[in-house]
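Ex. 9. Protein: 2-dehydro-3-deoxyphosphooctonate aldolase.
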Amino acid sequence: MSHSFEIGPVQVGTGRLFLIAGPCVIESETHARKMADAIQRIASDLKIPYIFKASYDKANRTSVKSFRGPGIAEGTRILGQVARDTGLPVLTDVHEPSHCEIAAEAVDVLQIPAFLCRQTDLLVAAGKTGRAVNIKKGQFVAPWDMTHPVEKVRSTGNERVFLTERGASFGYNTLVVDFRSLPVMRQQAPVVFDGTHSVQQPSAAGGVSGGQPEFIPLLARAAVAAGVDGLFLEVHDDPANAKSDGANALRLDLLKSLLERLLAIHGAAGGS
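Predicted structure tokens for 2-dehydro-3-deoxyphosphooctonate aldolase:
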């Protein structure tokens, strides 16, 4: 049973599909704003509630040489400015407990990366901010065991927590989505499906992650048909030159047609 709540104008867990989308990492203030504006126009045209996402620091990049982002001070300044200028709710990753209060001043949703979904201090610190918390399911965690991270956040009195499915480890450099995880986790909290990290091939491209973006629409359609509360998509206007996760990002020019199909499937499956 989903626990419904609001993130600004976005209703979570009420039966209406919502979208979390944006570039993997803040590449520049200009690029972040450009992506937020472009995706906001598409979401507005389709009347799908929208949360902008971008990371100020990608602390779990494969290689020490990989671009990580502008850092917490400059990154949260940019995210706060995007929120003020667009009126959109904003989501970003947090990697350390000490970052939670700082990030919470700028954004509406704190996201716990999949690799850190068992880190008690991080989950509790995020919960204590009062911001909504999105926990990405670890590639190594069974869906029924995600009840424990949820309980860690709720132990702070914060009930605004949801879960994101992003695939499970399936041998080396490969992920697979078990769609049974969606109804299992929806018994614990609202569930979002991450259609882009689910096609990632971790560390498979010589020090960076590869991906199979051609399968994003297929997996997203299946997830919406199976029943989810929201969609998470990393979107980029030029994936080939993205500074992080370009190999599994959705091209901006493909977003509108994909969302149109997903909304149709959602309606046919009984969603509002």
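Check your answer against this statement. The two ends are 17 Å apart (CA to CA).
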